[in-house]
TrEMBL record, chain A:
This is Cytochrome c1. The keyword ATP-binding does not apply. Its main location: membrane. Keywords: Heme, Iron, Membrane, Metal-binding, Signal, Transmembrane, Transmembrane helix. It comes from Methylobacterium goesingense. The chain crosses the membrane at residues 255-273. It is found in: Membrane.
From TrEMBL, chain B:
Coiled coil: none annotated. Its cofactor is heme b. It comes from Methylobacterium goesingense. Keywords: Electron transport, Heme, Iron, Membrane, Metal-binding, Respiratory chain, Transmembrane, Transmembrane helix, Transport. This is Cytochrome b. Residues 228-398 form the Cytochrome b/b6 C-terminal region profile domain. Component of the ubiquinol-cytochrome c reductase complex (complex III or cytochrome b-c1 complex), which is a respiratory chain that generates an electrochemical potential coupled to ATP synthesis.
Amino acid sequence: MKTTRVLAASLLAAVMSVTVASADEGTPHPPREKWSFAGIFGRFDQAQLQRGFQVYKEVCSSCHGMSLVRFRNLAEAGGPGFSAGQVKELAAQYKVKEQNDAGEDVDRPARAADAFPSPFPNEKAAAAANGGKAPPDFSVLAKARTYERGFPLFVIDALPFVGYSEQGVDYIHALLNGYEDPPAGKEIPTGTYYNKYYAGHLIAMPKPISDGQVTYAKNDKGEPVVPETTEQYSHDVAAFMAWAAEPHMMARKALGLRVILFLLVLSGLLYYVKKKIWAKVGGEVHGLQPELHKTY
Amino acid sequence: MSAHGNTYVPKSALAKWFESRLPLIGLVHSSFVSFPVPRNLNYFWTFGAILIAMLVSQIVTGIWLAMHYDPSAANAFNSVEHIMRDVNYGWLLRYMHANGASMFFVAVYVHIFRALYYGSYKAPREVLYILGVIIYLLMMATAFLGYTLPWGQMSFWGATVITSILGAIPVVGETIQSLLWGGYSVGSPTLNRFFSLHYLLPFMITGVVVLHVWALHVTGQNNPAGIPIKSGKDAVAFTPYATVKDVFASVVFFAFFAYWIFYQPNYLGHADNYVPANPAVTPAHIVPEWYFLPFYAILRAVPDKLGGVILMFSAVLILALAPWLDTSRVRSCNYRPIYRQFFWLFLVVCVLLGWLGAKPPEGGYVIAARICTAYYFLHFLLVMPLVGLFETPKALPGSILETVTGPGKQVSGSGMPIGAAAAPSSKG
């Protein structure tokens, strides 16, 4: 008995000693931000989604498509909450290609049912116009980015109430704020820019947004509601991207609460049914004439 | 199907008429109603029922997803997003199916380690157990095929890695590979046939599950004491006792399942799989789903490609040899003081292998993976045969009843009428 314990301990020690955590290659983890939509009771902040959409429309959309999102989504429940009229008006500002009866491609104003037209006709054109690499589409980008949390944090991230599933959004927020002067001696090839949070630090996207670039709607007294800073813009656009990637998130979380509560109540009731039935064991079971399986 | 006589007595004229032509109701009755269940089963024995529930859940959600999915390289990714965005409750179907695969494996791992701890693989349950290993293999194939369907980066590169290691098999490897690919690399034809096979395999699983339950019906269930049912006092009827326990446990498991669906739907997946497949860009780390990680660690622990493939498949297949590698006649680890410790050590090694499978194959991780791989096989090839020979097991209880009520105590009556149960072979 002792020998197996010694064996177990030495095996574990051997494994641990050779896997002393290899250091991260100098990319800091994005800071963890507060998001209204995080957690079990998380909900999107409508005003924030509207501001985020404004940032996307005025800044990001010149390079980044959002081809899986349709204009009508902007008016659907759990989203930015634009009215159907606003969406119709907005869509009409965009042109989409359509084939007419003569078989010619013609432009027509977009309708609510159309997807957001991409800024480039195709991926090759997008790559050619952007130094060889197409800017990624925004539709699911918030779910397509993450960063490694490592042990034991990744275990805690899965738990209710202390859980964490906004790594992608935090990364996007950090990236937009991560442009800084490169450390002395670091060579920056043409067409790349130094970003603290980008893997390898050399990103092809120039700093996309700066303080004061987007003018947000003012309140009744003509005062700004939120600061017009990169920090605020990046929060808003990251939240908007979270919605674009998961437009049914609020419906999902609301339904989840009901489903889990139902299952917990049901399991509680079943537990007592089970207890009551099992209390009969030791008594007589009537009407059964079972034969027993072979005993070995 | 039954090796035993029927206990079902049809009451109505119609039931009598039908039963004398096809004794189907009697078969179900003897398997799920009057079937004698050891009365000392713990909750680890509810995972069989949970697994059947998961299989049904996967098949039902899968059939619905297939109504909206497009298995072509050009449209697969977008059709999954179409399900997520535009299909009514499509997000629920897809998250149920994706997380359902993980939950299926959670349940199957509990089920497998339960069998290993309590010696459920030993005579007379070898065939029952090997059918289980076959189900596990089919599950792995199904899960792998399914993970390629969203056609994200991890789908594509996972398919590329796994199909290319099959190419390492001598003589037939390249043929298998090009048959799977349907071309010279992973592409749209690959996706098409993977979708077809992904739809086929679950029904094969269902078939083997029927055999698994059949074999269980013949040998009866093992139990925490690892001793057979000796009298009616040791058993209870499947219905209502096991039925209500299984339903309760399944509902608790589904609450756990629901947590992942609704609150961590992407935790068990990879962010990279939300990037559309791109043959020109290799992801930084190609990592399989968590349930394959121990085997992936074994594959990469071997410097030789073919050697890695052989070892990886052996790691699964060696499970099937457990009935003959284990020399101890005592089933349950509760009565095996030495082997019990090796069991827990083996479990720890499996978890460690899983962790190492997620790490890049470099430096200390490779060395650690090699140590763990070696131990994984030593457990089967050395520990199982030797400990059985040298270990002195604890005294086994006199009966299953004794483990529930304590030795020497009497209970009034029994779970089952004694006379009916005490002479089983006379009816078989």
